[in-house]
Design brief:
Layout: H1 7-14, H2 54-82, H3 84-109, H4 114-164, H5 172-186, H6 191-234, H7 242-280, H8 286-296, H9 302-319, H10 321-351, H11 355-394
Helix pairs in contact: 2-3, 3-4, 3-6, 3-7, 4-5, 4-6, 4-8, 4-9, 7-8, 7-10, 7-11, 8-9, 9-10, 10-11
């Protein structure tokens, strides 16, 4: 007959809270959960403790953290969208300041007071951009009547060609409706429609002018007192984190200036390439097309598309379909050079972001906030990427010293 072990001694070997012969936890070696493996009964409570696999435990830990991060990001996005009339001009002001701050620094090295140098550089920037817009408006105004007549004639030509092309399957009635709609858009309309359109344009211009004023006002103070403003922001952080916040801001600003310089280089190549092609093909409004392409390049994808369409349409109505086809090929060639060579690699070198990440960022920005999202997507991704890499390189697992 087997002799039963006393309860006191049994507890040393079977209790989930006891230890074995060498001080190891009951139920297995070091690292093993007390009470045995999956589904092992607890001797004292009599219940079964389910063992969660390590992969599921790790996925759950990452999952709730990602949910919290996503929720916080969504709240931030909603707040920024609600105050978009101020947040978007502030973002534009930061881009303007990143573009022209080297000139302010150069004037300061020449012993020009920064308060004066910031005003001089900002006024010069406004004059350059205003001059380009005035050039576009002046050329369009002087040749608008001629181009409008050419557009109407071109529409009729296209209508006749489409009507003679059987595979398109378009009836004369459909073509006539489209042509009438386009003519009504180009030619003068009735007084009521003119008033409504002028009211819409006036409301849009009011928002644009207000945003432009806020952007220029903020850009001046970014140029004049940018360091002081940033020091005030850093002081809002906890004392033990201020050094890392300060260094992260410097890295983000360096990445932002690199992005702006890369964008200017890409825009200049686009403008010169398309304007030179228009000049060779004897397309009118050459300078206006070049200026429009340069300004449009600052709006990713959309700006290049719109400016290219304008160049092709001008060539169509002024020189005919053959010249328009050649202009289209030139625009496609320049934009392919930009999108496949300049934009990914030149921009990627300036902002240290992979070309695929740039393309994904632009697409996500357009999907979330349209043109404004596309405008700030790449600099935002570049700045965040630079900050994350900086923190990963400098982190030692302990809070930074103040």
């Amino acid at each position: 007959m087997t002799r039963r072990r006393p309860r006191r001694l049994r507890g040393l070997f079977t209790s989930s809270g006891g230890r074995g012969q060498h001080g190891q936890p009951a139920g297995g070696g070091a690292g093993q959960p007390a009470g045995g493996g999956a589904g092992q009964p607890d001797p004292e409570s009599g219940s079964t403790r389910a063992h969660v696999p390590y992969g599921i435990d790790l996925a759950a830990a990452w999952g709730w953290r990602l949910l919290v991060i996503g929720a916080a990001g969504y709240v931030i996005y909603r707040v920024l969208s609600y105050f978009s009339e101020f947040t978007v001009p502030l973002a534009v002001a930061a881009l303007i300041a990143a573009l022209i701050v080297p000139f302010v620094d150069a004037l300061e090295r020449l012993r020009v007071p920064r308060v004066l140098g910031a005003g001089i550089v900002l006024i010069g920037f406004i004059a350059i951009v205003g001059g380009m817009l005035a050039l576009v408006g002046q050329q369009i105004a002087t040749q608008f009547d001629e181009l409008r007549s050419a557009v109407v004639e071109g529409i009729v030509t296209v209508q006749d060609w489409v009507a003679r092309t059987e595979p398109l399957g378009l009836s004369d009635e459909q073509l006539r409706q489209w042509v009438n709609q386009l003519r009504d858009t180009i030619q003068p309309t009735q007084n009521g429609q003119v008033v409504n359109r002028l009211a819409e344009v006036g409301l849009t211009l009011t928002h644009v002018v207000t945003g432009l004023f806020v952007a220029l006002f903020a850009a001046y103070f970014f140029l004049y007192e940018g360091e002081r403003i940033w020091r005030s922001v850093v002081r809002l952080a906890p004392r033990q984190s201020r050094s890392r916040v300060d260094s992260s801001g410097s890295v983000a600003w360096t990445s932002l200036t690199g992005f702006v310089r890369g964008t200017v280089a890409v825009a200049l190549v686009d403008a010169v390439g398309i304007a030179l092609s228009a000049y060779i093909l004897q397309v009118p409004l050459t300078l206006a097309i070049g200026a429009l392409v340069f300004l449009g390049a600052f709006i990713p994808i959309v700006g290049a598309l719109v400016s290219g369409i304008v160049a092709v349409l001008v060539a169509l109505v002024a020189q005919g379909p053959v010249t328009a086809l050649l202009m289209l090929l030139a625009v496609i060639g320049v934009q392919q050079l930009e999108s496949n060579v300049l934009q990914p690699f030149l921009m990627g070198r300036f902002v240290s972001v992979h070309p695929l990440a740039i393309i994904v960022a632009i697409g996500a920005g357009i999907a979330v906030s349209g043109i404004a999202g596309a405008l700030v997507a790449v600099p935002l991704v570049a700045s965040v990427n630079a900050v994350v890499r900086h923190l990963a390189d400098t982190s030692d697992g302990s809070p930074a010293a103040s």
